[in-house]
């Protein structure tokens, strides 16, 4: 991109609010994602004054938005409500140029909401917990709704050409999209949160090139993954890091342990897994290799996942699952994460921050959780 074109991208009406994000022309990559796309309501009781902020979130929502931050053409597929919450969710996604045209807006249904409460434990360490209860009245907030199988064919026909398909929930309609994406040459990344239907879960694994799961959330997953022979398997252990192994010709290699990088400052660990996943996808596909070539390159896989871990460490210094994005330049963030992986730099929070900031989140003190779920309180 020439200098004049870069200035135009920075200042035009479409990109002007995202001066910190990478220009969309920086990459030709495109990702489609479906699954857990919600509005994160972050309530912080650390400090003298309690605060509430709201971001587009959920594992799928975060991964798509981080990829868009890095210049990807990201497309969200899912179901939301025709309510105030849904409009704020779409507004935040749109600020980062995530395509929301394939989000189905359903009249009379609520948009999924997750409340994240940040607090200090007995030792004064930052901690967070998640809830689906309204913090004001206690009512249960709207939950995730899977894609309808009857809509899968219609949605599939509308999908843009994409090099990556990401999903984090098991559903027949989602499986159909994953299978078609793989058949059309996309890298399929599956990040499950549990096993409910083992047969359907196994079919999702068969459609995936990469599976990533948390050690403490899924029991019995190793046997199922072994039977389905997923090429790349990643198991995470929270603050301890992760391990991965690659299957060549159907045979699993040895596990490789990768410890987590130290955060420049531990303020909020939420979203660390999502940064790891997005960084991994971005790093693995940067050479424009086919999915089969990408998952066969062990060294590239290791470097990509480590870059994701470094991004996760950087984000821990800021509030929110994607707090880093709102105050830091994408190019600078990628440079620092690469330096962390190489062991040449341990940046401070102040060094990460950019002079330009994106006002993409809300600190409105009104109780959006109640106003968005009003029908549930009647």
UniProtKB/TrEMBL annotation:
Pfam families per UniProt: PfkB
Secretion signal, residue range per the UniProt entry: none
Cross-referenced Gene3D superfamilies: 3.40.1190.20
Gene Ontology molecular functions: kinase activity
Swiss-Prot/TrEMBL keywords: Kinase, Transferase
Positions of the Carbohydrate kinase PfkB domain: 39-112
Domain of life: Bacteria
Family: Belongs to the carbohydrate kinase PfkB family.
Family matches, as PANTHER family: CARBOHYDRATE KINASE PFKB DOMAIN-CONTAINING PROTEIN, HEXOKINASE FAMILY MEMBER
Protein name (record): Carbohydrate kinase
Organism field: Corallococcus sicarius
Native organism taxonomy: Bacteria, Pseudomonadati, Myxococcota, Myxococcia, Myxococcales
